[in-house]
Amino acid sequence: AERLEVKKGQQEMRRREMFLEDQNYKTNELLNRLDLGLPKSDSCQIANHGTGSTAWMRSHMYKQALREDETRRLEEMKQEQWRKAELLEFKQKQEEKDRMRARQDEQRRCFQSLFIFCSILRVNNAFLDRLQNKTQPTNIH
Questions:
Q1: pLDDT exceeds cutoff 90 at 92
Q2: What was the pLDDT predicted at 37?
Q3: Taking the alpha carbons of 22, 28, 34, 39 in that order, is the dihedral positive or negative?
Q4: For helices 51-135 and 2-36, what crossing angle results, to 10°?
Q5: Which InterPro entries does UniProt cross-reference here (predicted)?
Q6: Cβ density class 62-95: b for 16+ within 10 Å, e for less
């Protein structure tokens, strides 16, 4: 019974190993088709080259994944830089608009003050003219 139990255990181990090998083979085949864009027959040939080829493929896929990650990160950084530049440009335009508005308001206030001053000056001059006319002799008229 113990020998039978050991034999069943060994058979189970062989079955699991075969299952894992088959699973690895199918996974490699799928990855080859997806990552490398190879037709199915080419990916089968590559996967059948043995453990050296599989290790090379894993290394190649790892390096390719690293390159893709680096490219993605660089693209994200470019996008972030672009967003920051856009935001900075927007802020600068907003500040310029605010400065223009403030300058226009100041000019408007100055113009209003000048207008009031001119109005007061006109009233004063009219008053002085009337005063002068009263003090002058009437024969000059």
A1: yes
A2: 55
A3: negative
A4: 50
A5: EPSTI1
A6: eeeeeeeeeeeeeeeeeeeeeeeeeeeeeeeeee
The pTM score is 0.40
Gyration radius (Cα) of the chain, Å: 46
Measured between its terminal Cα atoms, the distance across the chain in Å is: 151
Q: How far apart are CA 44 and CA 77, in angstroms?
A: 38
Instruction: Give the largest CA-CA distance in the chain.
Output: 155
Question: Average pLDDT of 24-40?
Answer: 74
Contact 40, 69 (CB under 8 A): no
Q: How far is Cα 63 from Cα 61, in angstroms, rounded to an integer?
A: 5
Integer Cα distance of 32 and 49 in angstroms = 13
At 41, the amino acid letter reads S
pLDDT of res. 43: 46
